[in-house]
């Protein structure tokens, strides 16, 4: 299967865009950052429109800072103080959000490298990358595989990893979704339902306190579908500036289960997130400020897209009460998630 030219990185690396389809969805992924570039999904009238934010050329991903559609890691989300202690040794990571470490760090994070293409077909593409010992401060040589597959109206994502030394691993995809389709407004009229009774509170730096609390009585209680715009006023003056919270997904980690459902009333499009991960970060694009210019010259403003990031808990490597993200040599890291599209 042929790939489309996606441009060249500033250091001369060629990149590619791979079209995938199951006859219902038209999807594109890139070897730069193992990135989900586009998802064209039908509305209730059968009209296709792109429902993820993105760029038409690799230069947009190289210059942008929003992690649009990227595979993020080695460790997604935040690590407090950009460091952790493992086996009595402190490891200093790249700080890229003030004093903290976010989404794997800087120029050699998984979102910033060109992955090797292992296999590609009309419905599936498999990428591979080796992160050497010490990259972005992490211990161990990490081999990572990312697979995108389009089947029966779903975009299925599978991440696998192995290491030769103990190291934390937490991989996820950082797609921004707007079910209204391009050209996009905000997601305030979207309705969201989160299958989570608990969440992990954070301090003023958005680093978890180590507690796990009930969502009942908080703006994070989306156990029944709520209009996003109705909840934002209670959150815009907080440190998050909107939704940017880790929810503890109901059910048993390791089993694929329904974590979230989002719908957009005008188009009728609906998205369900299914995952085997213990948590999901629900984020409403609070840091988008118009400086990121996407497809067709569209500036992505605040709340233009939402993210549902299946994950292990943030800063888990520093939180003894959280499930451990440490991968042992000889163990196999596995993450399975699916974005399931339909119409009302």
From TrEMBL:
Gene Ontology BP term (one): glucose metabolic process
Enzyme class: isomerase
Family recorded in the similarity comment: Belongs to the aldose epimerase family.
Residues involved in beta-D-galactose binding: 77-78, 174-176, 244
EC number, as in UniProt: 5.1.3.3
Record-linked SUPFAM superfamilies: Galactose mutarotase-like
The protein, known as: Aldose 1-epimerase
Pathway where it operates: Carbohydrate metabolism; hexose metabolism
Protein keywords: Carbohydrate metabolism, Isomerase
Catalytic reactions on record: alpha-D-glucose = beta-D-glucose
InterPro entries named in the record: Aldose_1-epimerase, Aldose_1/G6P_1-epimerase, Gal_mutarotase_sf_dom, Galactose_mutarotase-like, GH-type_carb-bd
Active site: 174, 309
Pfam families the record matches: Aldose_epim (PF01263)
One term of GO molecular function: carbohydrate binding
Organism: Egicoccus halophilus
Domain of life: Bacteria
């Amino acid at each position: 299967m042929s790939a489309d030219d996606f441009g060249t990185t500033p250091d001369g690396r060629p990149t590619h865009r791979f079209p995938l389809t199951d006859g219902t969805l038209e999807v594109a992924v890139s070897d730069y950052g193992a990135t989900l570039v586009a998802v064209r999904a039908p509305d209730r009238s059968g009209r296709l429109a792109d429902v993820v934010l993105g760029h038409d050329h690799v230069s947009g991903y190289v210059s942008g800072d929003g992690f649009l559609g990227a595979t993020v890691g080695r460790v997604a989300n935040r690590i407090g103080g950009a460091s952790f202690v493992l086996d009595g040794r402190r490891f200093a990571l790249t700080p890229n959000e003030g004093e903290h470490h976010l989404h794997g760090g800087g120029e050699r994070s998984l979102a910033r490298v060109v992955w090797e293409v292992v296999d590609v077909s009309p419905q599936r593409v498999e990428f591979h990358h080796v992160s050497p010992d010490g990259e972005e401060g992490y211990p161990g040589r990490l081999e990572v595989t990312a697979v995108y597959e389009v089947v029966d109206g779903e975009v299925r994502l599978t991440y696998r990893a192995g290491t030769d030394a103990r190291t934390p691993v937490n991989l996820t995809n950082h797609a921004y979704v707007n079910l209204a389709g391009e050209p996009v407004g905000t997601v305030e009229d979207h309705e969201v339902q989160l299958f989570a009774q608990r969440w992990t509170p954070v301090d003023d730096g958005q680093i978890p306190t180590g507690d796990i609390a009930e969502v009942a009585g908080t703006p994070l209680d989306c156990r029944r579908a709520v209009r996003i715009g109705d909840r934002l006023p209670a959150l815009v003056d907080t440190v998050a500036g909107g939704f940017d919270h880790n929810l503890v997904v109901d059910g048993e980690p390791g089993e694929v289960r329904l974590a979230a459902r989002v719908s957009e009333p005008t188009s009728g499009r609906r998205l369900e997130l299914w995952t085997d991960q213990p948590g999901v970060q629900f984020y409403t694009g609070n840091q988008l400020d118009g400086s990121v210019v996407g497809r067709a010259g569209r500036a992505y403003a605040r709340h233009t897209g939402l993210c549902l990031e299946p994950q292990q808990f943030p800063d888990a490597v520093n939180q003894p009460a959280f499930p451990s993200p440490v991968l042992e040599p000889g163990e196999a890291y596995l993450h399975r998630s699916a974005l399931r599209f339909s119409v009302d």
